[in-house]
Structures are given as C-alpha cells and as structure tokens.
Amino acid sequence: MALRRLLPALRPYIPRFAPLSTAPAVREQPAAGPGALPGRGSAKAVRPPVPAVDFGNAQEAYRSRRTWELARSLLVLRLCAWPALLARHEQLLYVSRKLLGQRLFNKLMKMTFYGHFVAGEDQESIQPLLRHNRAFGVGAILDYGVEEDLSPEEAEHKEMESCTSAVERDGGGTNKRDKQYQAHRAFGDRRNGVISARTYFYANEAKCDSHMETFLRCIEASGRVSDDGFIAIKLTALGRPQFLLQFSEVLTKWRRFFHQMAAEQGQAGLAAMDTKLEVAALQESVAKMGIASRAEIEDWFTAETLGVSGTVDLLDWGSLIDSRTKLSKHLVVPNAQTGQLEPLLSRFTEEEELQMTRMLQRMDVLAKKAREVGVRLMVDAEQTYFQPAISRLTLEMQRKFNVEKPLIFNTYQCYLKDAYDNVTLGVELARRECWCFGAKLVRGAYLAQERARAAEIGYEDPINPTYEATNAMYHRMEELHLHPADHQVYFGQLLGMCDQISFPLGQAGYPVYKYVPYGPVMEVLPYLSRRALENSSLMKGARRERQLLWLELLRRLRTGNLFRRPA
Ligand SMILES: Cc1cc2nc3c(=O)[nH]c(=O)nc-3n(C[C@H](O)[C@H](O)[C@H](O)COP(=O)(O)OP(=O)(O)OC[C@H]3O[C@@H](n4cnc5c(N)ncnc54)[C@H](O)[C@@H]3O)c2cc1C
C-alpha cells in the first residue's frame, strides 16, 4: 500500500484538467464593497484609483462603536499590557470563578475580555454583531473557538502516535523520512511558541467527524448572515496528521529534484516560474541516474502533459505526480546525502489509506455545504511540515469548486522563504486550468516554533531571516497586480484587535473581514488567554490602538456625543 494510492483516492473529488486556456484566472465576484471590476484577464480595463484610507482617523475607525464599547476596549487592552496580571492570569481566573460563582464569573467575562474578543456563545447569539459589522463594511470569518484543554504530555503523546505510520512503527521508526517530516517529541505539543493559532491534535476518526460537524454548523451560521461570508478551517482538524507529513515530504522531495535538475541546466536560483528545463537534457539526466529507461522517460513528457514548448516548468513537473499521469507509482528520486535512489512514495496500511480518504471526504462535504449556502472556505496555513500537503489538497479543492467564482481560499505565509514562488505557482496554475484563484496572505503564526525546530533538528530554517524580509515578501505580492477592487485579496484582523485598520478599510470599500470566534465562556478561556498574551507581545500595535481609543473618547466627551448611537 502506498501514498500513491492517495492520488487516485482524490479522483472522485477532483475534475480532470480543464483545457489550457488564456481565460482570466480570476473572474468577477459579487462585490463586498464597491462595484467589482474585471479581473486579471481584463487588466487593461480602466480601474478606479485605489481608495485612500486614513488609519489615523479615530472618529472614522470607531464610528461603529458605542462609547461603552470604547471604554471596555481601553480597559481590556490596558489590562493586557500589565505584565504582572498576565503572568498570573490563569490563577486569577480560577480564583475569581471560585469567589464569584459560575454565573457572576460569566457575567464579568462578558463585560470584559470575552465581550471584547468573542462574539457570543452560539450561532444565534452572534448574529446581531455580525449584522452590525456588516453594515459598516466588515464581514466575518467564523471560527468556533472551543478548545480541548490537553496537558503538554497528552498533546505530545497524541502527536507522536498520530504522526507515525504502522509500517514505520513496526519497521524501526520514521528514520527513512527527512528529519523535517518526522514527528519529534520535543516539538510534539504544537501549541508551544504559537500565540494566535488554534491547534488540533488527532484523537480518532470520530473526533474528526465531530470537527467536521462543527465546521458545518459554522458554515450554516455564516450563510444566515450574508451571502459572501467566510469560515476558517484547519486540515489538521479533519484527519490524521501523519498523512499530511508524508505527503508534504513527497511534494518537497519532488520539487527539490526539479531544482536539482535546474541547477544541472545552469538555472540555479531562478524564480520558480522562470525556471524552464529543456526536455531533451532532462531526459538525458534522468536516464543517466537510472531512474527510468529512456523509453519510459519519453512517455513522461508527452505533448499532453507539456504542450509543445519543449521545456518543463515546475507546474508541468508537479503534474507528473498527479493521479492523472499514472506515473507516480514508478517514481524514485535521488537522495542528495546518500546518492541512492529512493522511492518517492511511502507505504500505508489499508486502515491508514481509509483515514486519508476520509479526510478528503470531509473536505469535500464542507466544500459542498459551503457552495450550497454561499459561504467561502479559508483553509488555514499551518506548520511547514504539514503545509505543502495542506496547500496541495486545497488546490485540488479549488480545481473542483472554484470554477465559477473563488469558493476555496488557500493561505500563503509570507514569512516563508518560498512564499512568492508558491503564490505565483498557484496563480499560474489557476490561469492555465481556468479556475479562480483565491488567496489569504498572512505573515505567518509559527515563527518561534519553526525556527526552534529547524535549529534543534538540523534542517534549513524555512523562515525569512528578518522581519523586514518578511515584509518585503508581503509587499512583493503587489507584483501580481492584485487590485483591491478586484476582490481577489481580502483583509482580515481578529475580532477585538486592530479595529482602527478593519473599519477604515471596510468603510473605504475594501473587502475586509474580522476573524470571529464564538463559543461558551468556559470553553473559549484558552483562546482568551492567548489573546491577552498576544496583545502584551504586540505592545506597540496595542499602544497605538489605545491612543486612538482615547482620542475618540475625548472627542465624544468634548462634542457632547457620548451617548450617540452608531449610524
Ligand atoms: C484573519 C487572520 C487569519 C490568519 N490566518 C493565519 C493562517 O492561516 N496561518 C498562519 O500561519 N497565520 C495566520 N494568521 C496570523 C498571521 O500570520 C500573523 O501571525 C498575525 O496576524 C500577526 O502578524 P501581523 O502581520 O498582523 O503583525 P506584525 O506584528 O506586523 O508581524 C508579525 C509577523 O511578522 C513575521 N515576523 C516577525 N519577526 C520576524 C523575523 N524576525 N523574521 C521573519 N519574520 C518575522 C511573523 O510572521 C510574525 O507573526 C492569521 C491572522 C489573521 C488576523
């Protein structure tokens, strides 16, 4: 049994290649703000100027907020900046609950932290807030914030169990895999060093089904509020992570092999989309390595897979390990360290293959529901040892569901050295196959953990060397000519954070969304803890936010507008 069977397993969920076309990669979408404009394909059409946004205008930023909400924000952000309080916040929460009793404690939380960072307890109670924000141009990305309270030991145990296959357990561990794609106990608790992201640990298939049910309820709730909402999902919630690890390794090795071949052809260091291998030279090298016979190799690069260019780029190359080519099962790649040829694809037991298939089925169920109720799915980006697989599976879903408009959104982390390559490949693939590209660009949430893991285990740090380099990567995306009014890229901030960014953007007509967590008070406490910690670590941003809040409060006081209702 092998990972190669994953790709055929995908088959029912993915359409065949659409014919190559020069049709626009991104088509028009219903406007969330100002009128939608033609996408990339009609780049020559006249676009209105990009609307100017003033992020320093406190009155505009808080136009949607009542005065008591501003006061609450100030109080909460101020408390979050108090180190002594933060250091003991867990004990304080415990003691307050004991002293006040559950009902009063819930009330206190709702008047403060919970009320500021969380939308409500369930799908029904969050609706007024969602409608209110929508009226001010800010949409919602729903996220059911309930988290399992696992101890670090439990988390490590679950991680080690769920990231190793039966074959590996029986046959002496995971040491055949690249170090980066093995589970390591010291990094088994994936919550460490991550402030914002929610972390899922695999328990069993029933638990994954229950996560899927939760996401389905989120989709329904989002569909009830608007016809252009989003919900966020994480693939680690939907299946066994071992599959993501192994598939990521396959994709990375295959890409590395391409770059090795490119270096042989004197093209080292070129951007992914500029690297084009000469087919004849490539066939020669592959035959010399003994990877396949010359006749077999000639079959790889037929006009069907390549067109008539006589060159192979990274997208052509990637398609060779698709179910469509039937080639993947024969593939071996040279190991740069040992010089040996190794099978690209790993072995899975029947049960593990079933687990993979179920993960794909769960994604498919979610995407169908999302399409039915008009909600878009954002697939979160996670750790680099899972991310190639997450991104690839998301792309398979995009092929199937982004035919008319973008329904599934992939996430690209700009702190990764290869972020620009990944985005350009996604955009180009969408253009070639004629489906709609949908992206969420973030800087990336796992910086400390990724760095520590790479240093400790001994592989290249996947993260840009500096914050400035990450910013430069972020701004490089502008080279893709994404125009705000095209509604190809959306802005997003967390509920209770950076309102001075979200609301001016929304009011200026940009598509902007708040990440909106919801859930019962006691069950979102871990989320609230992280919010408090994040605000303390992002002191500078929070300080600016507090200054603006003060300005607006004072302005309302001066002008006698303290009790004005947002309009
Ligand atoms: C709506 C929403 C959705 C999100 N979804 C995801 C997701 O799917 N996946 C994900 O990983 N994150 C996600 N995030 C988190 C995001 O990646 C950032 O971590 C978070 O938003 C803080 O970044 P910033 O750009 O707002 O803040 P800033 O303070 O401007 O930037 C901080 C970020 O810069 C980068 N950085 C900081 N120092 C360095 C350094 N020395 N070298 C290189 N890079 C550095 C890191 O990415 C760090 O998180 C999401 C955030 C939001 C608001």
TrEMBL record:
Converts proline to delta-1-pyrroline-5-carboxylate. The keyword Oxidoreductase applies. This is Proline dehydrogenase. The keyword Oxidoreductase applies. GO terms for molecular function: FAD binding; proline dehydrogenase activity. Residues 30-39 have a biased composition (Low complexity). One of its GO terms (biological process) is L-proline catabolic process to L-glutamate. It comes from Colobus angolensis palliatus. Residues 262-483 form the Proline dehydrogenase domain. One of its GO terms (cellular component) is mitochondrion. Pathway: Amino-acid degradation; L-proline degradation into L-glutamate; L-glutamate from L-proline: step 1/2. Keywords: FAD, Flavoprotein, Oxidoreductase, Proline metabolism. Its EC number is 1.5.5.2. It is an enzyme of class 1 (oxidoreductase).
